[in-house]
Amino acid sequence: MLCLTLTGTTLEEDFAQYERNRQWIKLVELRIDLLDESELSTASSFPDRVDVPVILTCRRISDGGNCGLPERQRLSLVRTVAAGHFAYVDIEDDVKKTEFEHELHERGIKIIRSYHDCQGMPADIYSRLSRMATKGDIPKIAVTPKTFMDVISLFRIEQELADVPEKIVIGMGDMGVPTRILYKRTGSFLTFCSDGRSISGAPGHLTPKMMSELYRADQVDKQTHIYGVIGNPVLHTASPMIHNPGFHAIRFNAIYVPFLVDSVRSFFKLAESLRIYGFSVTIPHKQDVLPYLGRITREVKQIGSCNTVVRIQNMWKGINTDYYGFLAPIQREIEQGRIHSALVIGAGGAARAVVWALHNHNIKVTIVNRSKEKAKALAEETMGGYDSLENICAYQGQVDLVVQTTSVGMAPDIDGDPAPDFRFIGSEIVYDLVYKPHETKFLARANAAGCRIQYGIDMLVQQGKLQFEAFTGYHYPQWASIYEME
Ligand code: ATR
C-alpha cells in the first residue's frame, strides 16, 4: 500500500495533495505537526473529507517533525484531534500507555507504535521491533541507514521478524531509497511517499506517481526479479526510466531500483540475499566490481571497467555495454569501411571504451588529451597515436571521425568547447558523448560546418537497451514508453 504523507500547512492544501494523488494511493497520513495552529481546531474532521483511511500523526521535532509542544500538551492535542474518524493513530514507542490508547482501541482505531532515528540506525532493531509488536500494536521503525550494511539489515527484517504480520519499515535518506521502493521485501505492509509539488525535486524523493507507474512498487511479489543500478551518486540516473517501462512492456515481473552503494562488497551480499538478477554499474564502481566477477567479456578485460553485471547460473558475469552502445550508431559506417582514422578527445574512463572499440575495428586512433601522459598511457595499450590537446589543430581535416569524450560542454557549462580553435572540414563524422545538452557547442559547430553529427543520447539509450537484453534475453521493446519524470 502506498501512503501519501500530507505536508501542507493548511487542511485545504492537504486536501489538494490528496486529490492530486488519489489515483495512486491507498491511505494518507495527516501530519498535524506541520499544520498552522489555526487549522488544528478543525483537523479532526479531515477523515470525513477523504475516501481513504487516514493516519493521525503529530511528529516531535526530535523525531524529524515540527511539533515543539511540551509532551503533555502534544499528547493532549493528539487525543483531541483523534476524536475524528481516523483509522490509525501514530504514537511514539517511548510514550507510556495511557487511558487514551484504551479509548482508541475501543473505537476500533489501530495504534502505530513508532520509533524514529533521523541520525542513524540502532543496533537492536530486530529486538526493538519485536518488543514493540508484543504491545499488540503495529510497530513502525523509521531509521536512517548510513552504510550499505544498514540497508542489508533493513532487508533482513522480513526474515528475522516473519512472525510479525503487520509492521512498517522505513529507511530514510538517500541510502534508504531501495527499502522504500522494495518495501514489501523488508516485510513492511506500506510505504510512505509525498506529493511532487510539495517537496522541490530532491533526488531520491519518491512521489506516488513514480512509485506506482514507474516502479509498480505495489505489484512486487515473491516472484519479482530484482534488478538495479549501483553508484555513488546514483539517484539522478535515467536507467530506471529505461528498464522499468521495458519490463512492463514485455510483461516481465521485474523491477529496476537505484542503490546508493558505499561498498561494492556489501552490495554483493545483498545481491545474494535478495537474489538480484543483474545490475548496472556507474561511477565510481565500474572497476571495483571486477574482483567479484566469475566471468568477464573480452571488452571488460581490455577496458578494465564493467558497467553491467548479470547472474548466469550461480556466477556473476561482467559485460561492458558502453562499448557496444558507442559503436551502434556508427556501426554502418564502420561496416562500409568509411572510417579508417579517428581522433579521440579525452583519455578518461569513457575514452577507454571508445578507443578500444575503434581499435578492435582496425581504426587508427589518435588520442588528444589535456594531460599528455594519460593520452600516452592509453595509446600505448591500444597501439595508437597521442598528443596533447593544445596541438589538436594539427589533426584538422586528417581524420574520418572525431569523438569528444570529456565532460567539457556538459550542462550546466553549456558554453564549454574542448577545442574552440579546431576547424571542421565537413566530411568527418563528429560524435559527442555528452548528452546534456542534446547538442553541445562542439557538435553545433560541426553541424554548421556540414559534418554528420552523432548525439550522445543515442549511445546512452543504446547501452541501456543492450543492458536490457543482457538482463532479460529479449530485445528492448519498441513500444515501451520511456518514462518521463514530472
Ligand atoms: P569519464 O569517465 O567521464 O571519462 P574521467 O575519467 O574523469 O571521466 O576523464 C575525464 C576526461 O575529461 C579526461 O580526459 C580529462 O582530461 P585530463 O586527463 O587532462 O584530466 C578531460 N577533461 C576534463 N575537464 C577538462 C577540461 N576542462 N578541458 C579538457 N579536458 C578535460
In short:
By secondary structure, the chain is an alpha/beta fold.
Describe the protein.
By secondary structure, this protein is of the alpha/beta class. It folds into 3 domains: 2-220, Alpha-Beta Barrel (TIM Barrel); 240-321, Leucine Dehydrogenase, chain A, domain 1 (Rossmann fold); 324-461, NAD(P)-binding Rossmann-like Domain (Rossmann fold), CATH 3.40.50.720. Helix content is 32%, strand content 20%. The chain contains 17 helices and 20 strands. An 8-stranded parallel β-sheet has the order 7-6-5-4-3-2-1-8. Strands 10-9-11-13-14-12 form a 6-stranded mixed β-sheet, sandwiched between helices. The chain has a 6-stranded parallel β-sheet with strand order 17-16-15-18-19-20, sandwiched between helices. The radius of gyration is 27 Å and the shape is elongated. The mean pLDDT is 95.
| Helix run count | 17
- Kindly estimate the percentage of residues that lie in beta strands according to DSSP: 15-25%
Largest sheet: 8 strands, parallel
Cα distance, first to last residue?
22 Å
Uncertain regions spanning at least 5 consecutive residues:
none
Indicate the structural class.
alpha/beta
Total domain count: 3
- CATH topology (level 3) name of the largest domain: TIM Barrel
Calculate the mean pLDDT score and round it. 95
Which range best describes the helical content: under 10%, 10-25%, 25-40%, 40-55%, 55-70% or over 70%? Answer: 25-40%
Second CATH tier, the architecture of the largest domain: Alpha-Beta Barrel
